[in-house]
């Protein structure tokens, strides 16, 4: 039997809550009540309506949501290409709302890498795969991975080595001297991932990177993201319509009407009866700092809940019931 918590219990919990660290203090990406309003032909579109999102360092996660829900708007903000109207957004300690133009440029070169849906948007058509990958390294001012800053011929050699390492990691070393039109869509996207990783970013953002590819190639591209995440430790956020891709990651966050609504966490568990490992998925709702909770539409519809629900606080959960008072 469960007993309802006493007022003293609740007071204690509230005090404990106040001592908790600030929202997202240990996250690599923090979006706190992020708002983006577009005005087109005098009409306001609220693309993001107070979106909260935390991404930990080293995560590989997917963002899903209906067309127009605000996914690309969010990615453009995280990529440093667009500025939010209100709210807070921090990536690797940089404040995306207060950055100067110069900070923004450095941010795009050093902190984030991106891969877009259109294969043609990711690579320069007149450069070979190797030249495309070398370009961000040159812009990066001679920084080489894990080594001292070096100049001249030594810098070029170190760069060429790193270009090859990245192309090998993504299994497209054989394409190094080809231009984009001489590669398949899948090969172009792998080279695009290598380009995005060339500046050694903290975060790799990909907006529908498999949108133009068939499902088999999409799987291979996804495997390439996983390799980058596991081998280089890069934090990766992928927007996808592809449920198969979304099922491959530990965490999938759904965006609805410009806010994060639910998220699915998957973890491996050993089945006690068969001894086999299986993936257990569980759906969670986001609870914002004001205590607002968005219940999945399927759940509320199934129980005919609308406008008002009855709540009850129990020892270890909160009960939500349809409002049957008829008042
Ligand atoms: N530059 C802009 N000017 C005006 N409205 C915009 C602009 N960019 C996006 N929007 C609007 O903001 C909303 C969110 O768009 P967004 O591109 O973020 O959606 P999405 O989730 O990426 O959709 P899709 O899955 O189709 O790519 C849409 O209503 C869109 O029309
Ligand atoms: Mg989009």
Provide an overview of this structure.
By secondary structure, this protein is α/β, with parallel strands linked by helices. It has helices spanning 7-18, 71-78, 101-110, 119-122, 129-139, 152-169, 185-198, 215-232, 243-247, 297-302, and strands at residues 29-40, 43-55, 60-64, 86-91, 94-95, 112-115, 203-207, 235-239, 251-256, 259-270, 277-285, 309-313, 318-322. The chain has a 7-stranded mixed sheet, with helices on both faces. Strands 2-1-4-5 form a 4-stranded antiparallel sheet, with helices on one face. The longest helix has 18 residues, at 152-169.
Considering the chains and any ligands shown, give keywords for the structure.
13 strands; binds magnesium ion; 27% strand; 327 residues; 10 helices; 7-stranded mixed beta sheet; single chain; binds adenosine-5'-triphosphate; alpha/beta; 4-stranded antiparallel beta sheet
């Amino acid at each position: 039997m469960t007993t309802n918590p006493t007022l003293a219990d609740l007071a204690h919990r509230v005090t404990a809550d106040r001592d908790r660290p600030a929202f997202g203090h240990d996250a690599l990406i923090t979006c706190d009540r992020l708002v983006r309003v577009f005005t087109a032909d005098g009409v306001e579109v609220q693309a993001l309506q107070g979106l909260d999102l935390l991404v930990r360092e080293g995560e590989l996660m997917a963002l899903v949501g209906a067309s127009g829900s605000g996914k690309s708007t969010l990615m453009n903000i995280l990529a440093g290409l667009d500025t939010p109207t209100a709210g807070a957004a921090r990536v690797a300690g940089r404040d995306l709302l207060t950055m100067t133009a110069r900070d923004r440029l450095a941010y795009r070169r050093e902190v984030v890498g991106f891969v877009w849906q259109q294969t043609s948007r990711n690579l320069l058509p007149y450069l070979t795969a190797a030249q495309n990958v070398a370009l961000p390294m040159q812009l990066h001012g001679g920084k080489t991975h894990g080594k001292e800053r070096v100049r001249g011929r030594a810098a070029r050699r170190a760069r060429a080595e790193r270009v090859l390492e990245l192309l090998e990691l993504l299994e497209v070393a054989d394409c190094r001297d080809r231009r984009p039109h001489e590669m398949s869509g899948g090969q172009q996207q792998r080279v695009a991932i290598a380009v995005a990783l060339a500046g050694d970013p903290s975060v790799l953002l990909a907006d529908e990177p498999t949108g133009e590819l068939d499902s088999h190639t999409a799987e291979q591209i996804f495997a390439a993201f996983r390799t980058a995440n596991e081998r280089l430790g890069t934090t990766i956020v992928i927007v996808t319509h592809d449920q198969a891709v979304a099922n491959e990651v530990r965490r999938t966050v759904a965006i609805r009407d410009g806010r994060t609504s639910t998220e699915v966490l998957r973890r491996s568990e050993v089945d006690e009866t068969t001894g086999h490992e299986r993936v257990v998925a569980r759906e969670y709702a986001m609870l914002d700092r004001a205590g607002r909770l968005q219940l999945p539409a399927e759940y509320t519809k199934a129980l005919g809940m609308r406008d008002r629900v009855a709540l009850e606080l129990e020892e270890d959960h909160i009960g939500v019931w349809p409002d049957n008072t008829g008042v």
